[in-house]
Design a protein that fits this description.
Order of helices and strands: HHHHH
Number of strands: 0
Shape: rod-shaped
Radius of gyration: 25 Å
Oligomer: single chain
Structural class: mainly alpha
Helix content: 55-70%
Length: 130
Amino acid sequence: MLLFILGAAGFTLAEYAVHRWLLHGLSLSYLDHRHHHAMPDDYAIGWSVPAIAVSIATLTAVLWSITFGAGVLLAWGWYAYVHWRVHHRPFPRASLLFFLQRHHENHHRLARRNFGVSTTWWDVILRTRT
C-alpha cells in the first residue's frame, strides 16, 4: 500500500516536472508540445511522448532498484553486526541494544521462538516472541 501511495505521488511529481521543465522548457520536446497547444485535438502523438514515457519508466525502475538494493544491503549489514556481537562481544546491560542480546539468547534456549536477530518486529507480528 505504501509503495502504491509513493508511486502515485512520485508519478504526479514526475508528471508536473516533465510538463513544466521539459515540455515547457528548453528541449527538443518543446516543439511537439507547442504543436499540441496550437492543435489540442490533433491525435498525432509525435516522438516526444513515447520517449518521455520510456525515460521516466527507466529512471523509475533504476531508482527503485537502487533504493531496494541499498535497503537490503543495509539490513544485511545490521544483521551481520548484531549476530556477530551477540555471539562474540555481547552488548553490555546499559546498551540500548541489550534487548537484542537477550532476544537471541532466548532463541538459543527456545529454538522455536525469537527468530529475528536484527529486530524483534516479525516475532511480535507473527507471535513468536517470548
